[in-house]
């Protein structure tokens, strides 16, 4: 075994290892990336039924209610970004930090009838914390700027439009 | 007074660390024995100063000194004493101080236990540790000072996040941090070797115990973190592929590769450049893992702070440490001579394969973790990758790793034949075949079946390795016992650690077969899950020190016989307006019975309760296996070779004189 042939072996082994890692990664990326969508995006461009997405927004106040399907509790609530609302059905225990009027992220698929079937509902540890995607989406739709105080009550959101969103105070700079 | 003393001790430690970084380096390059002798003294002094500083912060927390902002923001009078102490490192400022303190203890350990090192090497190692420490102590002092005061002092603190009020979390961060920071020592050895321009077998032998020690702590820390999320977060899961978890897994993977490649340096003087690169890489991943995550760049539940000043400081520091060391590597690595030759089929060959596979897994996990933040930074697209991605990429790479793991310890060095090795492993292969058949009938899905078979293979081949070395059943037991006593403990350590990996994988495979049900029941109603009958018999309110709770009583019966009574509860913390779920777990080491109390529905006269019931086969094996792995590492650290007999440097002609 000469130095040259050993180096050849090493290079071949490395190529196989990293090559298979790259192939696996690309393959997994094509099928397993989960996109974030706001309710208005779900309305305008519904994703295919087998595609898992993350739906984020605020839980509409007063929309949470429970149903019982074969002894299993199902939580039903509306998630809104101010432009549109999507009804979410979730079979399971809602997280401790789940509240009406606060932000939430639901992972699941969109049913053909436009409702969302969640396999997981995430509310973050800190009650003042809003998932970055949700804050970003709300800011983009002009509903709320996270830098200027608390989020408005989600009950008013479906009636709000971008035009009557709270104006940014002129004196404050980011 | 006390917080000022702590602040002063921290500043003093920072100054000593700066001295420790500069003076011994000058001494080592001028061969000035007095300057080099400063290194251990400064390292011990810095360690004492930082321990004092940390003790002052704990004292402030215990005595409810709410004029200290950190205590006011994270503690409260009503908090139990244990959590007043552990709350010190449950926040950003305190955890940075803890980090710095552990780093200084590492420096002190090199000063105290490294007396058999050549003085120039020891001085350089301590200097590198001092440089890193000085940077982070400056970060602590300027941007996240734990001793900052508030005026006027509040009457009571705001209290800690109730999720963190848990005994598991009391010890998880210190152990995990010790693992992260412990890799600073191999890093310092690598930098010192690059400065000297010399890596040889003795270097490998010095660096390996430090890497193994750090690896043991990191393994324990990850296992504890996984256990914590299993029983605290109450989702019945044990690993969420959260960026923070990945940040601990990535250095663990490269650290595991380092522990193995250092063996090749020690025994065969090969893979030297690669080992140095791994030592640099592992610590770089530890650093970026702790601090990128904590600075909130990766969106994660664990992020403490979103302060831009801190972010800029940390990024600068990371760029300096990582970029500087890689630059040094690029300049100096070509000067390191390459070592011994070996055939592809040999112990070295399999260790190389181990390194390639571990680094491939690491690359995959790194890609999956960094891709979403980069996509949102560059293209503004919000995406996430989760469990399906990581399962699809890591498991196919981990299975060949486990298969080769069975062969590795059996292989002779330099050049090996497959046939004798296979002959010694035939019974392990038979047991694996039987396990494969049983698993095929018992388990759903193909991957858990393969994982079970490879795990059995790893455990059996570890046993076969030891049995072979002892000539068990081939000569009288008394002689085998004599052999066992003279066999190095490192051999047992390696076999135990490998078997631990097998046990972890069996646990993970078992968990993939877990069953769970979510039910809504009245008091007195029964539900079936996995052959057991679960009855909710009672729900009562209860009072805790700083919370009120609702406690359920669930009786689990198997064929009418009472297996256990579970008491899951829901706690409401008035001071933070937060509720937490307390899971109830009963284990018989073969399976966990896991109950969670959810919401209460219906009117007061006839309430119903949501319950989540889990049956998790082999769940405890995951953490048990982690502890066994760490125990194997610790056993090999107690080996006689590590404790006595200062390794001598190879007698090469010393021509590579550093300018």
From TrEMBL, chain A:
Residues 1-23 form the signal peptide. Residues 1-7 are cytoplasmic. Residues 138-150 have a biased composition (Basic and acidic residues). Gene3D superfamilies: Nucleic acid-binding proteins. GO terms for molecular function: heme binding; metal ion binding. Belongs to the CcmE/CycJ family. This is Cytochrome c-type biogenesis protein CcmE. The gene is ccmE.
UniProtKB/TrEMBL annotation, chain B:
The chain crosses the membrane at residues 6-26, 38-62, 96-113, 125-144, 175-195, 207-229, 249-266, 273-292, 312-331, 352-374, 394-413, 425-443, 449-467, 487-509, 618-638. Keywords: Cell inner membrane, Cell membrane, Cytochrome c-type biogenesis, Lyase, Membrane, Transmembrane, Transmembrane helix. It is a multi-pass membrane protein. GO terms for molecular function: heme binding; heme transmembrane transporter activity; lyase activity. The keyword Lyase applies. The keyword Plastid does not apply. It is found in: Cell inner membrane. Residues 315-640 form the Cytochrome c-type biogenesis protein CcmF C-terminal domain. Its main location: membrane. One of its GO terms (biological process) is cytochrome complex assembly. Residues 89-295 form the Cytochrome c assembly protein domain. Belongs to the CcmF/CycK/Ccl1/NrfE/CcsA family. Required for the biogenesis of c-type cytochromes. Possible subunit of a heme lyase. This is C-type cytochrome biogenesis protein CcmF.
């Amino acid at each position: 075994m000469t130095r040259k042939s050993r180096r050849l072996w090493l290079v071949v082994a490395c190529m196989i290892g990293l090559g298979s890692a790259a192939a696996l990664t690309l393959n997994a990326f094509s099928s397993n990336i989960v996109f974030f969508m706001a309710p208005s995006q779900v309305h305008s461009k519904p994703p295919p039924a087998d595609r898992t997405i993350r739906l984020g927004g605020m839980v509409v106040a007063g929309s949470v209610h429970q149903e019982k399907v074969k002894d299993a509790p199902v939580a039903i609530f509306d998630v809104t970004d101010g432009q549109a609302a999507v009804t979410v059905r979730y079979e399971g225990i809602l997280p401790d930090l789940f509240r009406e009027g606060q932000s939430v992220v639901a992972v699941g698929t969109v049913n053909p009838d436009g409702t969302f079937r969640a396999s997981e509902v995430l509310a973050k540890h800190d009650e003042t914390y809003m998932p970055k995607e949700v804050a970003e989406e709300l800011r983009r739709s002009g509903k709320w700027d996270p830098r200027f105080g608390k989020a408005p009550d989600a009950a008013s959101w479906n009636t709000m439009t971008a035009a009557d969103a709270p104006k940014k105070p002129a004196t404050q700079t980011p | 007074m006390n917080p000022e003393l702590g602040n002063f001790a921290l500043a003093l430690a920072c100054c000593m660390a700066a001295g420790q970084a500069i003076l011994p380096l000058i001494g080592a390059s001028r061969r000035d024995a007095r300057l080099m002798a400063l290194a251990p003294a400064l390292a011990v002094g810095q360690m004492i100063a930082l321990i004092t500083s940390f003790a002052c912060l704990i004292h402030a927390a215990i005595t409810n000194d709410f004029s200290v902002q950190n205590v006011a923001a994270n503690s409260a009078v009503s908090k139990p004493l244990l959590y007043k102490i552990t709350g010190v490192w449950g926040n950003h400022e305190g955890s940075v101080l803890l980090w710095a303190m552990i780093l200084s203890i590492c420096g002190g350990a090199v000063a105290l236990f490294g007396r058999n090192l050549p003085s120039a090497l020891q001085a350089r190692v301590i200097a590198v540790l001092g440089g890193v420490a000085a940077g982070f102590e400056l970060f602590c002092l300027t941007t996240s000072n734990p001793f900052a005061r508030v005026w006027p002092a509040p009457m009571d603190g705001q209290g800690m996040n109730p999720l963190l009020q848990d005994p598991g979390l009391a010890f998880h961060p210190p152990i995990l941090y010790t693992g992260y920071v412990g890799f600073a020592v191999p890093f310092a050895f690598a930098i010192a070797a690059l400065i000297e321009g010399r890596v040889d077998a003795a270097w490998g032998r010095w660096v390996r115990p430090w890497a193994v020690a750090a690896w043991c702590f990191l393994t324990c820390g990850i296992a504890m973190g996984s256990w914590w999320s299993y029983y605290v977060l109450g989702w019945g899961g044990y690993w969420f592929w959260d960026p923070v978890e990945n940040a601990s897994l990535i250095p663990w993977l490269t650290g595991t590769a380092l522990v193995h490649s250092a063996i090749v340096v020690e025994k065969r003087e090969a893979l030297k450049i690669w080992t140095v690169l791994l030592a640099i890489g592992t610590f770089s991943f530890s650093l970026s893992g702790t601090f990128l995550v904590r600075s909130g760049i990766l969106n994660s539940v664990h992020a403490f702070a979103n302060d831009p000043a801190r972010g800029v400081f940390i990024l600068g520091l990371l760029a300096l440490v990582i970029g500087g060391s890689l630059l040094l590597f690029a300049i100096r690595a070509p000067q390191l001579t390459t070592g011994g030759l070996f055939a592809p089929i040999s112990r070295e060959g399999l260790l190389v394969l181990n390194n390639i596979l571990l680094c491939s897994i690491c690359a995959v996990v790194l890609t999956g973790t960094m891709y979403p933040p980069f996509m949102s930074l560059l293209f503004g697209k919000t995406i996430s990758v989760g469990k399906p991605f990581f399962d699809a990429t890591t498991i196919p790479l981990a299975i060949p790793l486990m298969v080769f793991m069975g062969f590795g310890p059996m292989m002779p060095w330099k050049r090996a034949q497959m046939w004798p090795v296979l002959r010694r492993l035939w019974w392990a292969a038979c047991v694996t075949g039987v396990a494969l058949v049983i698993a095929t009938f018992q388990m759903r899905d193909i991957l858990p079946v393969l994982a079970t078979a490879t795990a059995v293979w790893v455990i059996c081949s570890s046993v076969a390795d030891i049995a072979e070395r002892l000539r068990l059943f081939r000569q009288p037991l008394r002689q085998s016992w004599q052999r066992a006593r003279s066999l190095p403990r490192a051999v047992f350590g390696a076999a135990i650690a490998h078997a631990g990996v097998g046990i972890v994988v069996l646990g993970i495979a078992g968990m993939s077969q877990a069953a769970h049900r979510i039910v809504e029941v009245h008091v007195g109603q029964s539900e079936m899950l996995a052959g057991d009958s679960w009855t909710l018999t009672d729900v009562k309110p209860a009072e805790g020190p700083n919370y009120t709770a609702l406690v359920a009583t669930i009786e689990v019966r198997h064929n009418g016989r009472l297996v256990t009574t579970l008491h899951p509860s829901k706690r409401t913390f008035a001071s933070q307006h937060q509720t937490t779920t307390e899971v109830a777990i009963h284990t018989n080491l073969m399976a966990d019975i896991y109950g969670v109390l959810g919401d209460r529905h219906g009117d007061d006269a006839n309430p119903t309760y949501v319950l989540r019931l889990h049956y998790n086969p082999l769940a405890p094996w995951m953490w048990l296996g982690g502890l066994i792995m760490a125990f194997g590492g610790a056993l090999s650290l107690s080996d006689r070779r590590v404790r006595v007999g200062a390794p001598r440097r190879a007698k090469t002609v010393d021509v590579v004189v550093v300018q």
